[in-house]
Amino acid sequence: MSRLNPSLFLSLAAGALTLLPAAAQAQAAQGKPPQRVRSVTLQGNQACPTSTGDEIVVCTRNDEPYRIPKSLRDSGPIAAQNQSWVNRAAQIDEVSRVAGGLPDTCSPVGTGGQTGCSMMWNRNWAAERRAIQQQEQAGR
């Protein structure tokens, strides 16, 4: 890793100071905090407004202006007709396993069906806990 030349570092620091407005430089030299900090959200190709006097302007870009905010999104279970074919096929596979009495399925039919009951109860309990936590987080 190369070391930064001290003269290069000083010239970069001096260049950064010249970009600040004169009022901000004077304020920084006195050690006083700014009187006003303004946050501006820019859309498209808008330019960031310049700061004046004792004001600092912080600009951010909104890349997704038409996206629904997280607080308004519906995060509930997705109806079967709106799910992908992969999810539908996985659900059909699970129903077939239970109906066939395969091991770890908690089915009264078949030789290994009873072994999956505790696993099913644990999965259901964990799903209920996640649902309660999601409701608590949504209520905050």
Describe the structure.
With 140 residues, this protein is mainly alpha-helical. Among the domains are: 17-61, no CATH class; 104-140. The protein contains four helices and two strands. It has helices at residues 6-19, 22-30, 85-100, 117-139, and strands at residues 36-42, 55-61. The chain has a two-stranded parallel ribbon. The protein is elongated and about 85 Å long. The two termini are 48 Å apart. Residues 38-51 have a biased composition (Polar residues).
Brief rundown of the structure:
The chain is mainly alpha-helical and 140 residues long. It contains four helices and two strands, in the order ααββαα.
Q: Which terms summarize this structure?
A:
140 residues; mainly alpha; two-stranded parallel ribbon; 44% helix; 10% strand; signal
Layout: helices, strands, pairs:
Elements lengths: L5 H14 L2 H9 L5 E7 L12 E7 L23 H16 L16 H23 L1
Parallel strand pairs: 1-2
Low-confidence stretches: 15-19
- State the shape: elongated
Strand order of the largest sheet: 1-2
Mean pLDDT: 76
Roughly how many Å apart are the termini? Answer: 48 Å
Percent of residues in helices comes to 40-55%
Strand content of the residues, in percent?
5-15%
Biggest sheet details: 2 strands, parallel
Radius of gyration: 30 Å
> How many beta-strand runs?
2
Number of helices: 4
How are helices and strands ordered from N to C? HHEEHH
- Content-based structural category: mainly alpha
